[in-house]
Amino acid sequence: MKRDEGVERKQHILIHLSSLPKKILSLHGRADLAEFVLRDLCHQQCFNLKKAAFFVDNPDFNCLKGVAGYCHEDNSKACDAFWDNPEKFMACVQESPFNQKVRDVWLPSLKKVSESEQQAIHSVSQMLDMQKPDFCHLQVKHGNHGILIFEKENAQDAMPSEHLHHGLSLLGFCPVY
After folding, report:
1. Entry pTM
2. Where are any strands of DSSP class E within the chain?
3. pLDDT digits over 54-94, tens only?
4. Are 75 and 39 in contact (CB under 8 A)?
5. What is the Cα gyration radius of the chain?
6. Which of the two residues, 158 and 42, has the higher pLDDT score?
7. Which of 73, 87, 99, 149 is the most exposed place for a label (fewest CB within 10 A)?
8. CA 49, CA 39: separation in Å to the nearest integer?
9. What rounded mean pLDDT belongs to the chain?
10. Residue 160: pLDDT over 70
11. Is 38 helix (H, G, I), strand (E, B) or coil?
């Protein structure tokens, strides 16, 4: 009997997600931890994302801040064992034009702008040259909102949204500077 591909994909995602807390603890205290977590969430064995940008929206300070960006093309030279070689990985990430664009985003809070949240996210994705973006968001610590804008590697990929929200919540444990 052949296993359903959707069930197998969900199983791979859950295995991948369950390994992340241990990895996060191994680099606890690093200011750049979000880049590591985002890279792992974008991995082919996880959500298989072509591009992803993580933002924190703080309505109290009227600020939308770009935290980390991942682009498969920019990071293709980054080592596979990046959790074990953080300095080499961060050297690659810091050279990434996409990550630089994301980190340069500093806008008014999406909760305070006059346009709809979807229109505002579309504007941000255009700033990042994202062609077919999707997004999800959730509450993170200190009353902030985490927003992930992403492009799938394969547009027809049926991504289990409940798992994506669980993965995004792991970014909420990363420091924001």
Report:
1. 0.91
2. 49-58, 63-71, 106-107, 134-139, 145-152
3. 999 999 999 999 999 999 888 666 566 789 889 988 888 88
4. yes
5. 16
6. 42
7. 87
8. 9
9. 87
10. no
11. helix
